[in-house]
Amino acid sequence: MTLPERLRYVVIEGPIGAGKTSLTRLMAERCGGVTLLEDPGANPFLAGFYRDPQRNALPAQLFFLFQRANQVRDLAQSDLFRKVTFADFMFEKDPLFASLTLREDELKLYHQIYAHLKLQTPVPDLVIYLQATPQTLIERVARRAASYERDISDDYLVRLSDTYTRYFHQYDAAPLLIVNSDNLNFVDSTPDFDLLLQRIAAMRGPREFFSSGR
Fold it and tell me: Which residue, 24, 174, 205, 206, shows the most beta carbons closer than 10 Å to its own?
């Protein structure tokens, strides 16, 4: 099964540990598309941020801001209709992390830089928001054991999950499929992945929900 032709730019979003990058890669592979991926491992301040957020939050956040801006600029200049593009981030979501991690004075500076960089980004044809309970996120992050995530606190993942929930509760810029991913394994279960594609193809409204019910 492939995606409907109307979907040329699909964004998969979710907090750390939700599985957005794995699903982005899988969708591109199965549907013959290209990927646009964040590269957290390239951020030299990220491991320091998880160890000492107060000292490293601003440089870590600004590195991601410039990285995402460069990627989105390249996307805006490319031919979106050549192949469907699957991305594991939205540039417009960057301030979400900033509001969670930066002090008031740092946040003011961040917003000045963000406003200067803000680009005319293509609106996604579909956003897939992967939800998961904080406990699921904590377990997944511990299981994959990425070196730069070694010092992520459970409290940070809980606050991040709540921030994502509030953000997408109000999101209406593009069609949105909210997926409860606690009991779904798209990478290792072909039936789960095929069911997701079926739900995408069947979407008719601007906001729908998908849960396995297991």
Answer: 24
Judged against a pLDDT cut of 90, whether residue 63 lies above it is answered with yes
DSSP label of 33: -
pTM of this structure: 0.91
Q: Is residue 64 part of a domain?
A: yes
What is the token pair recorded at 174?
């593009």
Average confidence (pLDDT) over 135-146: 87
Question: Per the structure, how many domains does the chain have?
Answer: 1
The sheet with strand 207-211 has its strands ordered as 34-36, 85-87, 9-13, 126-131, 176-180, 207-211
Q: Which domain holds residue 100?
A: 9-211
- Rounded (10°) angle between helices 104-117 and 94-101: 170
Strand locations in the chain, DSSP E?
9-13, 34-36, 85-87, 126-131, 176-180, 207-211
CB 50 within 8 A of CB 147: no
DSSP type of residue 92: G
Q: Which range among 1-10, 94-103, 106-115, 126-135 shows the weakest confidence by mean pLDDT?
A: 1-10
Provide the CATH number for the domain around residue 135.
Answer: 3.40.50.300
**Amino acid letter, 162:** D
Residues whose CB falls within 8 Å of the CB of residue 65, separated by 6 or more in sequence, listed in order: 94, 98, 110, 113, 114, 117
Give pLDDT tens digits for 26-52: 999 999 899 999 999 899 999 999 899
Q: Specify if 3 maps to a domain.
A: no
